[in-house]
Amino acid sequence: MTAPGGRTGATRKLVLGLPLGWMLLFTLLPALVVLAISFTEKRRGAPPFTPLLVPGEGLLPELNASGDNYALIFSDWLYIQAFAGSIRIAAVSALITLLIAYPMAYALARVREGVRTPLLILVVLPFWTSFLIRVYAWSSLLNSNGLINSLLLDAGLIAEPLPLLNTEFAVHLGIVYSYLPFMVLPIYAVLERMDWTLLDAASDLGARPARAFFRVTLPLSMPGIVAGLLLVFIPALGEVIIPELLGGSHTLMVGPVLWNEFFGNNDWPLAAALAMLLLVAVLLPAALIYRLARRTEVAT
Amino acid sequence: MDADQDRPLTGGDAPPIIRIRGVTRRFGGTTALDSVDLDIGRGEFFCLLGASGSGKTTLLRAIAGLETLDSGHILVDGEDMTGWPAYRRPVNMMFQSYALFPHLTVEKNVAFGLQEERRPRDEIRDRVQATLDLLEMGALGGRKPHQLSGGQRQRVALARALVKRPKILLLDEPLAALDKKLRERAQAELVSLRERIGITFVVVTHDQEEAIGMASRIALMRDGKLVQIGEPRDLYDAPCSRYVADFFGAANLFAGTVAGITAGIATVDSGEAGSDLPALCDGQSATGAAVTVMVRPEHIRLSRQRPAQSSALAARVGALAFLGNSYACELTLPTGKIVRVRLSPLEFEAAGRPAQGDEAHLWWEPKVARMLSQ
Asked: Cβ-count burial of B31 within 10 angstroms (0-12 exposed, 13-18 middle, 19+ buried)?
């Protein structure tokens, strides 16, 4: 018989080690490669950047790092505006998504078992179609001779087509539409576990329904709200397809800019520097929200 | 005493603090409350007792305002509560699961109701502390509910309801979640707490021993109806039906017909017992009426020698269990009917230490046997 301690120890190492190894290999390592490239300079050839380490005079190679890419980004208004635009649009979209998703999640948690499953399937159903196609469909719905404008024109409600496509409104719409399930599901998961007699207790103690919601239901759904905000904010921040297809040239977001540097200008080092700054832009609010979540965390 | 059984007693001459009239509540096809009428007196420790599904919790929630009624009225202190939402009623409830807010500390849980009343900060702090002190929880105000033991949680739930100074405290199975030892102590504490603060307690329980131990009066419920209301002694000694007799502890029940009545003592011809049984007459049933004779196991005498009583029944001793403070004995009559007897150790000695398989005789004083017409 193996010693139970040793055996569980080995299993434990395997269980923790596999995902950890995976993360190291496919997340941390590539991120380090991108970080390295961000300190190089663009050149013609393959790879299209100067090597970070060059043969030195002694035995050790010499570091050939340059901060020029970062300097360029911080000196050019365009990049800063792109970052600011991304953060603003992602934050506003995440909040709008929350406002729409919360009542949906609440309803899902309170309806009869029989109705709940079909509704949950409806929430997840859009995932069965390609993301790209769904965003593309919105662009054809929103353009000046698209379905929405033609219906409004036919009804005589407007005289000219509304400028819907290629606006920031369209980008918000696209993000809210695309990421709604990522907000609904974590909030639903929290509400579904909630003990609803707590609301009876709040009512018994003199709280009107609205007060009971803000003092009991809402604080108890914070873990789901935080998870949902992160799940929407983070991908929305680096979103490429939605601003490309729905935002047009009016909406400045960092995703399309990065894409353009990489594929359009073939400037890998600058794109890498943008990617690293984007990572920081994601990690900062994520860490902030995480701390907030830890503070309000509820042990059940 | 018997004549009072049909009408609800109130605590003295004062008007009742709770007056329930014709309250009906249906859930789909089932009737949880079936036109219930009940008066509960000021300062009572009133128990709603019943098996699960009897409607006792629904009635408690109806008083709290957490159930809407299909018909009927509930008056609290003379005021009709119809249309009053739970958050406006002058009653507070302690939930079976305690329903403590998991994200709030003990202090904030207790302060919750006072904050809803928009009391000044100082008053809230003082009253919360005073109530926690009353329940010996003063030192644990900063803990979260998950950091407390079951008994401590129960006290927080109690404090949270009491701090509002309700006219009536409603308690839904207040002891069910506690272990046996703690339960006995908590039971005594609830009784003394009610005496100290003087408000009316209405307690729901499924446990007849708990109800007998705590209540000033008990209402036994079955299928949404009140079966019998009375002091614990009344329900134990003078149950109105076989159901009540059976619910309140062990009872030996013999079906039969009244053969004759002399001087308040009826003789009941019972086929089940294979003999004539003496019982205290209920004053209603006449000769020839179908009745049930009820005798509590502790009221039955047992002896190995044939006693002088002519009504003594011969029986064979079956299972015998020593329970520490008593012996539980099952005897089989020649008809096959099993009679349960409980003997104190002294009585057991006096009966001649009967053993399994022995022939024995059992009898009882006629006045301890009750005649049930239902």
From this structure: middle
Mean per-residue pLDDT of chain B: 90
Question: What is the average per-residue pLDDT within A56-61?
Answer: 80
How deeply is A210 buried, as exposed, middle or buried, from its count of CB atoms within 10 A (0-12, 13-18, 19+)? exposed
Interface test with B, best of A193, A205, A216, A218 (most B CBs within 10 A): A205
DSSP assignment of A132-198: HHHHHHHHHHHSTTSHHHHHHHHTTS-SS----TTSHHHHHHHHHHHHHHHHHHHHHHHHHT--THH
User: Where do the structural domains in chain A lie, given as residue ranges?
Assistant: 75-299
Task: Report d(CA A40, CA B328) in Å as an integer.
Answer: 92
Cβ separation A300–B85 shorter than 8 A = no
Q: Which residues of A touch B144 (CB under 8 A)?
A: 299
Are the CB atoms for A92 and A172 separated by under 8 Å? yes
- Specify the residue for token string 């579904």: A192
Helices (H) and strands (E) in chain A, counts: 15, 2
* DSSP secondary structure, B23-63, as one string: EEEEETTEEEEEEEEEEE-TT-EEEEEE-TTSSHHHHHHHH
Q: Are A136 and A245 in contact (CB under 8 A)?
A: yes
* Residue pairs between chains A and B whose CB atoms are closer than 8 Å: 67
Instruction: Count Cβ atoms below 10 Å from residue B260 Cβ, excluding itself.
Output: 12
Average pLDDT over residues A216-223: 94
> pLDDT, tens digit, for every residue of A126-185?
889 999 999 999 999 998 888 999 999 999 888 888 888 999 999 999 999 999 999 999
Q: Express each pLDDT in B69-117 by its tens digit.
A: 999 999 999 999 999 999 999 999 999 999 999 999 999 999 999 999 9
Nearest to A208 by CA among B84, B105, B100: B84
How close B200 comes to chain A (CA, Å)?
17
pLDDT above 70 (res A296): no
Whole-angstrom distance, CA of residue B201 vs CA of residue B240: 25
CA dist., res. A14 & res. A24, Å (int): 15
Report CB contact under 8 Å: A205, B146.
no
pLDDT of residue A122 exceeding 60, the answer is: yes
A137/A135 Cα distance (integer angstroms):
5
Q: What is the pTM of this model?
A: 0.83
ipTM: 0.84
**A211 compared with A49, residue with greater pLDDT:** A211
- Beta bridge partners, B336, equal none
Per-residue burial over B127-151, b if 16 or more Cβ lie within 10 Å, else e, is bbbebbebbebeebbeebbeebeeb
Average pLDDT, chain A: 89
Q: In angstroms, what CA-CA distances link B113 with A44, A205, B20, B34? A: 72, 5, 26, 32
Beta bridge partner(s), residue B48? B204, B219
Supply φ then ψ for residue B52, to 5 degrees.
-65, 140
- As its CATH architecture, domain A75-299 has Orthogonal Bundle (1.10)
Alpha carbon distance B145, B104 (integer Å): 8
Contact B112, B101 (CB under 8 A): yes
Q: Select from B116, B128, B169, B172 the residue whose CB has the most chain A CBs within 10 Å, as the one to mutate to test that interface.
A: B116
